[in-house]
């Protein structure tokens, strides 16, 4: 074992952080770049389903909240691309991989939004599931990722609360508003459970990621935690979750629940979800529309540093 390897192994064993200049196995670097890039892409693509509702928010207050939330997601993408760059990745290259369909993002953002209740349900369930996934990542072994995650989680917590508060408001409104919320919950519940990834038995990379302490819990453990956390919130809200198998198991002290349609998850991940093409086309268009801004910024920076562009 080389000195670098020994230091790396000891850092992981002692639960300390690996920093960008430290020696790390190639597989660790590759895994970290892929995971951080996919996470960054998810934040940026995730701006689309809710961004569509900014011009249609019912009040000025809701518009201000939604604008702030969607801007936060852009910020999360930026922190994460920066964290990937500390490993030697190039942000422009990562963006190209995304828009050419060579790198993935969270399956959840390929589902359509049908009503303003979806803004509330996305905050409650989708940001809620993201929090379950991301809180343990604050202790991830790669320093820049773990530190970015601390700030991101604080903002995700605001996202979840604004969603839940919006839903509480709608549930104390008219029967039509309550129906909108229930319809939205029915559509988002199963895709939210899929956000934790395939069952552990079909997740071959989990063991290595846990050994490297990139991941702290398996997909199924996090999914269970999310269900246990969400059921009482659904009861308080007065909505039902669309799963006939959902019930408290006193012996396990957890909720039992049904399995999502894993074939659907495979289809959505492989590019064949309801809106994959539209989401990527929009991202590609934004990239093309923004090219002149990037060129102008680079020319300006070059002029200031005295080096011609
Ligand atoms: Fe986010
Ligand atoms: Fe969020």
TrEMBL record:
GO terms for molecular function: phenylacetyl-CoA 1,2-epoxidase activity. InterPro entries: Aromatic_CoA_ox/epox, Ferritin-like, Ferritin-like_SF, PaaA, PaaA_PaaC. Its EC number is 1.14.13.149. It comes from the Bacteria. GO terms for cellular component: cytosol. Keywords: Oxidoreductase. The keyword Oxidoreductase applies. One of its GO terms (biological process) is phenylacetate catabolic process. Coiled coil: none annotated. This is 1,2-phenylacetyl-CoA epoxidase subunit A. It comes from Actinoplanes aureus. The gene is paaA.
């Amino acid at each position: 074992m080389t000195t670098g390897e020994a230091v790396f192994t000891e850092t992981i064993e002692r639960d300390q952080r690996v920093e960008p200049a430290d020696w790390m196995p190639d597989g660790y670097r590759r895994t970290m770049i892929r995971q951080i890039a996919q996470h960054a892409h998810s934040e940026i693509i995730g701006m689309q389903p809710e961004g569509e509702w900014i011009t249609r928010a019912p009040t000025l207050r809701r518009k201000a909240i939604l604008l702030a939330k969607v801007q936060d997601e852009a910020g999360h993408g930026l922190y994460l691309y920066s964290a990937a760059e500390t490993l030697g990745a190039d942000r422009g290259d990562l963006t190209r991989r995304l828009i050419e369909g060579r790198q993935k993002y969270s399956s959840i953002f390929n589902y359509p939004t049908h009503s303003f209740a979806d803004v509330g349900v996305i905050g409650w369930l989708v940001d809620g599931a993201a929090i379950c996934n991301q809180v343990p990542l604050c202790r991830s072994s790669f320093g820049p990722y773990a530190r970015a995650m601390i700030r991101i989680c604080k903002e995700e917590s605001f996202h979840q609360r604004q969603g839940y508060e919006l839903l509480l408001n709608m549930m104390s409104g008219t029967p039509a508003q309550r129906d909108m919320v229930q319809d939205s919950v029915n559509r988002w519940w199963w895709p939210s459970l899929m956000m934790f990834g395939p069952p552990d038995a079909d997740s071959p990379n989990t063991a290595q990621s846990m050994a490297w302490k990139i991941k702290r819990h398996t997909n199924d453990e996090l999914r269970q935690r999310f269900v246990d956390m969400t059921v009482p919130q659904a009861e308080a809200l007065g909505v039902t979750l669309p799963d006939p198998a959902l019930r408290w198991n006193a012996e396990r002290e957890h909720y039992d629940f049904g399995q999502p349609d894993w074939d659907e998850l495979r289809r959505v991940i492989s590019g064949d979800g309801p809106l994959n093409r539209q989401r990527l086309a929009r991202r590609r268009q934004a990239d093309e529309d923004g090219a002149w801004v990037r060129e102008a910024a680079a020319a300006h920076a070059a002029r200031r540093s005295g080096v011609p562009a």
